[in-house]
Every structure is written in C-alpha cells, then in structure tokens.
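Dear colleague,

Thank you for sharing your sequence with our group. We've completed the structure prediction you requested, and as agreed, I am returning the results in plain text so they can be pasted directly into your records. Please verify that the sequence below matches your submission; if there's any discrepancy, let me know and we will rerun it promptly.
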Amino acid sequence: MTTSDYKKVLKQIKSKPAKVKKFKKHNLPKERSCGRANAKCGRCGRTGNGGHVGKYGLDLCRCCFREVATSLGFKKFS
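Please find the predicted structure tokens below.
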C-alpha cells in the first residue's frame, strides 16, 4: 500500500468513525524513528530509498545534490 492509497480510503470512510478507527489501527504505515525509510530530502521532500546524501548533515536527494554541489564547494573530477 502506497502513501496515497490509505489517504483515499480515509476520505471515503470519514463519516463512519468506528470504521476509521479500525482502518487506522490496521492499515496506516508504521511510524519510523530511524533507517532508510525515514530519510527525506530537506530541499524537495523526496523519500526514495536510493540516492540520499546524508553525509555532513546535507540530507539531500541525489538530484538536489547535483544542482547545489558546486555552490557548496564540491568539484567534479571527470
């Protein structure tokens, strides 16, 4: 189940509080405190698992890092 799927269902059953409570208990994604699933780009908000630059506290996805790398002082050698 993706992030948007459960939100669509919640909109459909919002008038039935008992069903909403049960649905949230069994179907909402688990809150994460650490790990790859919690890594989010600080610039665009992308949460993809591949290509997250967290080193030195940058917290950027690979696309945003490419755009701002030269202004941060990184050089491309090839």
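Summary note from our side: The first helix runs from residue 3 to 12.

Kind regards,
the structure core
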